[in-house]
C-alpha cells in the first residue's frame, strides 16, 4: 500500500521535506503502526515521530484507526500555540480564518456582535520580546490549514453550545514581528461572566488542539516551540 504523509514544522525540517511517500506491506495499517514503521525507517526523526499525533482526513486519529490509500494522512507535531498560507483561507461564514496578512480585530468583532448580547470581548495575542532572559525578535507560524480551520470551527460550536455565545477566530501565519497580533478571538454573550469564560476557553483550546506551530526567532538562533515539553513557551501570548 502506498501512502503520502504530510509533515510540518520541526518534523518536516528533520525529514527534509513537507511530505513523504511511503510504501507499506501490512494490511490493515493502523495509525499506531504507521508511527512505529516510520520511526524504524527514519531513526533520526524517531523522537519527533514518537511525540507526534496522526491525523486522518483532518481528524486526530487514535492508534487503532485504520489508514487506507484514499486517506489524507498527516503527522502532527505537538502544537505550540505546515504549510504556510499564501492568502486568507476562511470558513464560508467568514468567522474563522488562517491568513498571512495582518489581523483586523475590529472587523472580527463585527462578526460576533448581537443585539441580544450585552458583553463582547476581543482577545489579541501578540509577539512579546522577553521571556525571562530569552529575547525574541519575531515568531514564524505555520498551519495545517484545512484541519486548523475545522478545529477552529469546532471551538466556535463548543463556545456556542456551552455559553450561548458567538465566537470568531483569526490566526496569522508567516513572520509575525514584535507587538503584532498572531491570533485574535472575538466573543459576544448575553452577560460578561459567560463572555469572559468563553473567551478564556477558546484560547486555551486553540493552543492545545489546533495544528498551528510557531518558531521562535532570537539573537541566538531559531527554535520550533512545543516539541520539547521542558522548553519554555518563548515569545508567546
UniProtKB/TrEMBL annotation:
Full protein name: Molybdopterin converting factor
InterPro entries: Beta-grasp_dom_sf (IPR012675), MoaE_sf (IPR036563), Mopterin_biosynth_MoaE (IPR003448), Mopterin_synth/thiamin_S_b (IPR016155), ThiS/MoaD-like (IPR003749)
Domain of life: Bacteria
SUPFAM superfamilies: MoaD/ThiS (SSF54285), Molybdopterin synthase subunit MoaE (SSF54690)
PANTHER family on file: MOLYBDOPTERIN SYNTHASE RELATED
Leader peptide range in chain numbering: none
GO annotation, biological process: Mo-molybdopterin cofactor biosynthetic process
Amino acid at each position: 500500500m502506498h501512502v503520502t504523509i504530510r509533515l510540518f514544522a520541526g518534523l518536516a525540517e528533520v525529514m527534509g521535506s513537507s511530505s513523504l511517500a511511503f510504501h507499506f506491506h501490512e494490511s490493515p495499517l493502523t495509525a499506531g503502526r504507521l508511527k512505529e514503521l516510520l520511526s524504524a525507517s527514519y531513526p533520526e526523526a524517531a523522537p519527533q515521530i514518537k511525540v507526534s499525533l496522526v491525523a486522518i482526513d483532518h481528524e486526530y486519529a487514535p492508534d487503532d484507526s485504520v489508514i487506507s490509500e484514499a486517506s489524507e494522512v498527516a503527522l502532527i507535531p505537538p502544537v505550540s500555540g505546515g504549510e504556510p498560507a499564501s492568502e486568507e483561507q476562511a470558513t464560508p461564514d467568514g468567522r474563522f480564518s488562517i491568513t498571512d496578512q495582518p489581523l483586523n480585530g475590529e472587523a472580527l468583532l463585527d462578526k460576533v456582535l448581537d443585539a441580544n448580547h450585552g458583553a463582547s470581548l476581543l482577545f489579541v495575542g501578540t509577539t512579546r520580546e522577553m521571556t525571562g532572559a530569552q529575547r525574541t525578535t519575531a515568531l514564524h507560524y505555520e498551519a495545517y490549514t484545512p484541519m486548523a480551520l475545522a478545529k477552529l470551527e469546532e471551538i466556535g460550536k463548543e463556545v456556542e453550545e456551552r455559553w450561548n455565545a458567538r465566537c470568531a477566530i483569526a490566526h496569522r501565519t508567516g513572520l509575525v514581528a514584535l507587538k503584532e497580533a498572531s491570533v485574535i478571538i472575538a466573543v459576544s454573550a448575553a452577560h460578561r461572566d459567560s463572555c469572559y469564560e468563553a473567551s478564556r476557553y477558546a484560547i486555551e483550546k486553540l493552543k492545545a488542539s489546533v495544528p498551528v506551530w510557531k518558531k521562535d526567532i532570537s539573537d541566538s538562533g531559531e527554535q520550533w516551540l512545543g516539541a520539547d515539553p521542558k522548553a519554555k513557551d518563548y515569545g508567546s501570548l
